[in-house]
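can u pls check wat happens w/ manganese (II) ion
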Amino acid sequence: MMGYRKSFVIFLCVTVIFIFSLKFFFLDKYFEDMDIKAYSIHSANQMKKGAQYLFSKLSNDVNNMYMYETQKLPYCDLPNDLGPYSIKIHDSFDNTSALAFQYANFALGGHNKPDNCTALQKIAIVIPFRNREQHLQIWLYNMHPFLQRQQADYGIYVVEQYGNSKFNRAKLMNIGYKEAVKEYNYSCFIFSDVDIIPMDQRNLYRCSKNPKHMAHSLDKFQFRVVAAGMQIERAANNISKAKAVLHHRDIGNERNPKSVPLIKKASERMHIDGLSSLNYTVISITKHRLYTKVTVDVGLPEKDIY
Ligand code: UDP
Ligand code: MN
């Protein structure tokens, strides 16, 4: 049987241990508080450092996210419902403001690319141009939606010949190429007349290994064409056919009677005539919402050749 004194000693011991453990517990708490206090004493500095750290981490994250967005987007697939396309004629082509409004998210200069995928090719579309405003409006109105449906990363370059000298379509195309590469890392160049609209969305405005004729079966004679005579293209076997807007031959654009003999000699002349010998003066480069207009003075035709 335990004596009264003995049990009192045990009680005392337990109490002391209990009190000590409480003390340790509170001491810990106390030191934690001290830590916090220590922090808050240096808070100005600490917070500044903390904020800097957080900010750099955050901006890193944002950068990483951005890199992810731009680099890791999947490659674009073609929609599987591409099919015949019929040219749309807008009521008033006097100005493109309605269309420009619709594409207000475009980068100026008619450069556009898909939002949520990476296109494999960066395509410059070069249009030789002079005094065909109505055709241009119809072309833009139809071709922007067309190219967007094909998930294209593209820019439109309308190369306008300044002055009244004979229209030099090929030179304007070469100039378009030279001016476009200065602006963006284009990997594909498509040269289109302003009056040609493809008739099928499966006629891909893309480059392949070899040059490709986008409009090899012109349908000029089959259509009674609504819009001041445009051409519509449709691919061979139904895909690359295209519509041509019908029009009269422009003054200053008479057929070159020497073009056939010149073309026959092309393989001899290609090294001396063309991109390598391109002389021109840029008069202006204007960034419109739906296209970039490059106005150039191409000089006079060389007398000894023409
Ligand atoms: N072109 C132009 N203004 C002219 C002549 C030609 O803009 O005064 C451009 C336009 O892009 C046109 C292309 O050159 O579609 C070919 O000219 P055109 O349409 O007269 O040739 P064709 O219809 O006989 O192929
Ligand atoms: Mn034409």
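The longest helix spans residues 4-41.
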